[in-house]
Amino acid sequence: MLFYMRYQSKVPYYRMTEADCVSLLDKAVQGNLPEQDWDMFIGMMIRDNEQIENLRTKCYVIDDAFRKETKLIDGRQCVRFHSEGLKQLTCLLDEWQHKTHLIV
Questions:
Q1: Could you say which of 6, 13, 18, 57 has the lowest number of CB atoms within 10 Å?
Q2: Amino acid 80: pLDDT
Q3: Structural contact between residues 47 and 56, judged by C-beta atoms closer than 8 angstroms
Q4: Which residues pair with 77 in a beta bridge?
Q5: Stretch 46-62: mean pLDDT, rounded?
Q6: How far is C-alpha 64 from the geometric centre of its chain's CA atoms?
Q7: How many CB atoms lie within 10 A of CB 20?
Q8: Collapsing DSSP states into helix, strand and coil, what is residue 97?
Q9: pLDDT at 26 exceeding the cut of 90
């Protein structure tokens, strides 16, 4: 039992809310999303929310097809996307902003 308690407390846990997704997409569209935040989001499966997992998968595809080099902004490397990637991210942002207004 003691082993389980010690192991459980050290397992990393990453949880996103709908509002977190809107903030992340907004920063991506604006061009000031830190690369580390983006890579963490697209690289970690979301098991507790199927809608957010579907968004993460779409963002992964956008990243794979349309990601440009990073740009240093305020001392942090931020992700940038080609125009088609920005267009797709903007559509996702609009969709998710609408979702969060319906949830509230």
A1: 13
A2: 96
A3: no
A4: 72
A5: 94
A6: 14
A7: 13
A8: helix
A9: yes
